[in-house]
Amino acid sequence: MADNTDLAILRLLQEDASISFTEIARRLKMSESTVRKRVEKLVQEGVIKKFTIIIEPSKIGLNAIAIVGIDVEPPKLLEASQKLCELPEVKYVATSTGDHMIMIEIWARDTKELAKIISEKIGVIDGVKKVCPAIILEKLKE
User: Fold this and answer.
1) What are the φ and ψ backbone dihedral angles of 66, each rounded to 5 degrees?
2) Mean pLDDT for the stretch of residues 82-94
3) How many CB atoms lie within 10 A of CB 65?
4) Is the pLDDT of residue 141 over 90?
5) Residue-averaged pLDDT of the chain
6) Confidence category of residue 142, pLDDT binned at 50, 70, 90
7) SS3 annotation, 22-80
8) Within 10 A of 14 (CB to CB), how many other CB atoms are there?
9) Which residues pair with 106 in a beta bridge?
10) Which domains does the chain have, with CATH numbers?
11) Cys-Cys link to 133, which of 9, 41, 66, 128 (CB 3.0-4.6 A)?
12) Average pLDDT of 8-37?
């Protein structure tokens, strides 16, 4: 289980995954080797799944972002979820107990492309009964 030092390291890495172990050590007043060993342990234990970047979709020409709720026939839930994971436009897939069985995030160039993805790639997946998109106007926290 992560202690307060691990949580402080994680907080710094969440703010900027490119921060060096030396800089983390300086900010937390500890040695670089201690930071490196703790991060390696957090990776081995699965606390840190991967180091990544956050992309601003509009800066790469993707101006239609939608959160989409999908209802499927219950026996097809896992199969449909896996098919959604295979679509490059789908950036996030989760099964849910809420209003919809599956929640996804789609990135598209525009609303026309978004509609095409929904109708031609998602709506045709075996077991999909209902697709409920909500276009994101502005992301306030990530």
Assistant:
1) -135, 145
2) 98
3) 19
4) no
5) 96
6) confident
7) HHHHHHHCCCHHHHHHHHHHHHHCCCCCCCCCCCCHHHHCCCEEEEEEEEECHHHHHHH
8) 10
9) 66, 90
10) 4-44 (1.10.10.10), 57-135 (3.30.70.920)
11) 66
12) 96
